[in-house]
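# nightly structure sweep
# worker-07 picked up a monomer target from the shared queue
# config: single-sequence mode, recycle default, output format = structure tokens
# input follows
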Amino acid sequence: MSNISAAGFAGLFLKGLAMGAANVIPGVSGGTIALITGIYERLIDAIKSFDHKVLALLLKRQFREAWRVVDGTFLSAVLLGVVISIVSLAKLLEFLLEHHELLTMAFFFGLILLSVYFVGKTVRQWGLLAITMLVLGTAIAVSIAMLAPATENASFFYVFLCGIVAICSMILPGLSGSFVLIIMGNYALILGAIGRADLGVLLPLLLGCAFGLIAFSHILSWVFKHFHDATLALMTGFILGSLAIIWPWKTTLIETIQREGKPAKEVVAGYEWFLPSLLDASNWLAVLLAFAGGVSIYLMEKVAGKGQPSSSSSPA
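# output follows
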């Protein structure tokens, strides 16, 4: 692995911050940010390098070699940004989604809308297979948006399963780990646990995330190497379909669930989408924020294109 300068470390840290912020917003994927900023394949390769060979190096106390094999400086810079972002922004984004959901989702809608173009242009050749995968990815993402959320479940095994599914979604561009947690019924539970540092919820979640991340990264790395264009086209479809989830102008359908021995609980049952009224000033502000979101991802893509090493520079 080539050495990373202080400026390079800071740049990777900022990209990690952006990834972490994206993962907290329902409908937005940190994987999309990684793909746009040019670090996606290198990130997947670094994660999948955690295997029995690295464990053997650690047991032999060959820490420097193990650090080199896992691309440790790169990975630590990105993951440090992700963790700090999630911990520091969880309460802020919880507040924004509760009190300014329209404006918050509008900003991210613009960001993701332009991401479709930037991810799509990384496909080297748009043939029949690539177009088919684009349509398939879009259909899958839209279908997920139509699913009715489950009820909250704080059991150890179910939270562990949430960690596996959510982390796989988080590293797939266009599939939001936060929205998957909503579908599984545990988004509010986990967001609250982060704010309270509730280890009873966070421990099984982190165990599930670690297991899912290492296992799924091997699959993604292999697929990328053997079906590069088809994989990127599928991911472009995921991002395009996720716009249905992020669309700011929708009504949340609430159902009240009666629970034996417990108070009734309100859960999200789905959404109804509608077009905004141009007579409402708040809608114009939302449109401006959507434009600002598009500009932000445009600038991020331009900055990422100025010399960020590609995945080919990562260790084998």
